[in-house]
Amino acid sequence: MRAVAIAKRGGPEVLELREVSTPEPAQGELLVQVQAAGVNYRDVYEREGRGVYADTPIGIAGVEGAGTVTAIGDAVSEFSPGDRVAWHASPGSYAEQVAVAADEAVLVPDGMPTELAAAVLLQGMTAHYLATSTFPVKSGDETLVHAGAGGVGRLLIQIIKLRGGRVIATTSTAEKAELARSAGADETIEYDGFSERVRELTSGVGVCVAYDAVGASTFDGSLGALRHRGLLVLYGQASGPVAPFDPERLRTRSLFITRPVLGSHTATRDELLQRAGEVLRWVADGRLEVRIAGRYPLARARQAHEDLESRRATGKLLLLP
Ligand SMILES: NC(=O)c1ccc[n+]([C@@H]2O[C@H](COP(=O)([O-])OP(=O)(O)OC[C@H]3O[C@@H](n4cnc5c(N)ncnc54)[C@H](OP(=O)(O)O)[C@@H]3O)[C@@H](O)[C@H]2O)c1
Question: Are 177 and 234 contained in the same domain?
Fold first, then answer.
């Protein structure tokens, strides 16, 4: 079968389309014919060996996707060949076939296109936990969402609005500002001077929560945009890692900071099914709109990474094997 390998740590050019042997489903695993694989920032960090990924072994890229079960390993009772499933944490997903742990798979709802499930699972569950668990947004809460036209950003804006919050979103271009507004953002602002602008838009008070996955270039401003006892949710580092941080800086307004990951919010089968189920239901009934911004054959995985990293992407990017 064909798959996209990370030949060595580096830029998008290290992604190579290769002929490799088809995986065998081990005990507790499903073999899946991949219909769509999700392209995520995590894949970029892993390719570069950034942060916690410095020591992970390199191999086939990608962790997210959806497709049809073609075979099952021993001790699998929940799924059968022919089922359509989606997953968000199975290494080797940039491939025609992948072995997925049955514990990590969720059924794609009847009537939902398979590629739509691949497009929403990882980013949708991320937006879901950020707005419902990390900081459960309630009616009237003022929030800041960075990169509001991004994959997670647009979904996060929509979920905050479903919960009655107000959203100020940063974006880098007028076209992206329009996309953030179409997701429900109340205000869109530029990155330049965003901290001061947030204070103006909140009558000098600041926001209760700042959702920041841009990292290095926005971290200080995000802290400055918070109200007393506000929470900075640093959930990624698209612009690079944040420099070491002195906790004394939280003292000015008794601020909080957290660095959450999706894995802690899908750690049990029950929580995964509950979170994925709610996200997929919201997509199915139209409460959550998913924007697929690019579809690429496996051979163009490099281009997909370039588009994500160069800020050209305005929504989900998918590889279609
Ligand atoms: N912790 C978790 O559980 C978790 C899970 C999923 C994703 N994430 C994080 O969420 C973030 C967004 O992921 P995504 O897949 O949805 O990507 P994305 O938002 O579609 O793309 C990243 C966006 O960040 C903005 N950005 C600002 N400065 C940038 C820079 N120097 N370089 C690149 N981008 C920059 C760009 O939007 P503008 O041009 O509008 O600035 C860009 O489009 C990533 O940091 C990712 O690691 C975290």
Answer: yes
Last residue of a domain, one of 259, 275, 308: 259
Nearest CA to ligand 1 atom 32: 239
Same domain flag for 193 and 293: no
Tell whether 131 is covered by a domain: no
pLDDT tens profile 155-214: 999 999 999 999 999 999 999 999 999 999 999 999 999 999 999 999 999 999 999 999
**Ligand 1 in contact with 50 (CB < 6 A)?**
no
Determine the angle formed by the axes of helices 174-182 and 151-162, rounding to 10 degrees.
Answer: 40
pLDDT digits (tens, 9 = 90+) for 78-90: 999 999 999 999 9
95 C-alpha to ligand 1 centroid (Å): 24
Please say whether the dihedral angle defined by the alpha carbons of residues 145, 147, 152 and 155, taken in this order, is positive or negative. Answer: positive
DSSP H or E run through 64:
strand 64-72
The range of the structural domain enclosing residue 115 comes to 2-122+266-320
Residue 210 included in any domain: yes
pTM of the model: 0.97
Q: Output DSSP code: residue 130.
A: I
